[in-house]
Structure prediction request, 604 residues.
Amino acid sequence: MSETYAVDVSGVEKRFGDIKALDGVTLRVRQGEIYGLLGPNGAGKTTLIRAIVGLIAPDAGSVAVLGRKLPDLDVLRQVGYMTQQAALYPGLSVGENVAFFAAINGVESGVDEVLRFVHLDNRRDSVVANLSGGMRQRCSLACALVHRPKLLLLDEPTVGVDPQLRVEFWDSFRRMAAEGTTIIVSSHVMDEADRCQRLGLIQYGRLLTEGTPGEVRERGGSQNLEAAFLALAGRQAES
Amino acid sequence: MSGHRVAAITRRLLQGFRRDRRTLALLFVAPLVILGLLGYLIRNTVVPEVGVANQDQGPLGGAVASALAKSSHLSVSTIDASEGDAKLKDGSITAYIVLPANFTQQAQAGVIAPEIHLEGSQPNQSAGVLQAVQAALGAAASGAPGAGVRVAPHVTYLYGGPDLDTLDFFGAAAIGMIVFFLVFVITIVSFLNERSQGTLERLMASPLRRGEIVLGYMVGFTVLALVQSAEVLVFCLAVLKIHNQGNVLLIFGIEALMAIVAVNLGIFLSMFARTEFQAVQFIPLAIVPQFLLSGILFPVSSEPKALQYVSDVLPLTYAVNALRDVMLKGADLTWPSLQLDVGVVAGFVVLLIAAGTATLRRRIA
Prediction:
């Protein structure tokens, strides 16, 4: 019997004009896993995430989320998506933004709790337009978490977040994963990659290699994850 | 002041335009379209249709009728006095003149009193007809035996009256136009913000259905638009004292429908703009032609035939017509013409909701 994956991406291709953004990506993420998508700018990380939340329809291949084949609007209720740019309503307060995203996901409570979680409970009434970049990022994360999703997609979540808070974020991510939440994080920060249970390296729209940080080091032939990654990427470019 | 730095700013500006072909096209094409339209409209305006019923048993009536027929400001046809009112109502003529049976005798007595029946809802046209008729009468009367005849026409109005002024005529239309224009601009810009600040992407990755987004927007902006409509209406009626013969709630209802058209047109057109700058460019494209062709300035019936076809597919044409019918003529929903106007505007609402919903998925990033 085949295991049901939280995310099951199979042979997905996507073209934008002449550019092949995804070129046959197959990737499976188990429930409760923290999976890191690594790769240079323009590698296809964001396109892959957008395919997983149903924002783009693949030209070929299929995507299933929490056992449901996309497109499926209802399953999105259990998905949290934090975009790269802190997508918020600048004219609304922090609390109003989070309450809005709770409401469109059919949830009425949890605003206070999630604001404490991202340390913005004392800025609840601040208008987003007046917040610093890091605070906006935290507010954006709160909007993605407020409805307690079973699958959380974070597109470079810690950009602009100070190191101390980044550590707290990761502690929380691990706690959420332990409670069964599946988390997919895209990043090009290597010390973040090390905190993931499994990594997928993406380049030119293809999954180069997949494995635990240890396995990736081994395959790249370096104790330094960044060096291992560069070695693997270079090897691929030569072939 | 450094010439280099100034030149850098100038160059930067022109380089940006080079990649924004749409803005360039607008900059150089829109003025020609708008001025061309305006010129074509004004130069080819059809002169008012006027009916003449000559009942005079003497020779003067015939002389006046032929003087009227020669007027370049009127298009004259011979009618029977009994069918005049019906023709005024159905809009086939804007005035008719009855030269009474004793017309020649009146001239001999020194005062001629032709009857001038005006449709009356368009003060400019009424004034034009009166002027042209007076001129023709004056010319004919001066040639009559016993020159120095005084002209004392007996003027009646089907709608409105001599007190109806230009503001009464434009005010009724402006109520629709102002609401339509402002609601459109606010909707298109804020829907575009939703797109550019990335929140639309988030909405589309949530369980929200496209129809729910469009409907939510529609209701939100409609609430604002209704408050604005009420404010505009109260100001026009209570402060400007614009002539109104109709039901205030009916006027408000037409305004509200027009506001909903504007909301949905804004949502729909925002799909075709990537920046606020480009959204604002829809104003000369979507708003100015409607302003010129919806009958606000020039009656649709006086437009060249080719443009009348365009006017006939613009929602604002129907809203303006409906508002004028209600306010100037006292129309209510039992009038078939008003049923048609309101029905067409409501049809546009449905069409634009469908169009906005259908295009939402295509352009999110």
In short: Chain B has two domains: 49-157, 166-360. The mean pLDDT of chain B is 85.
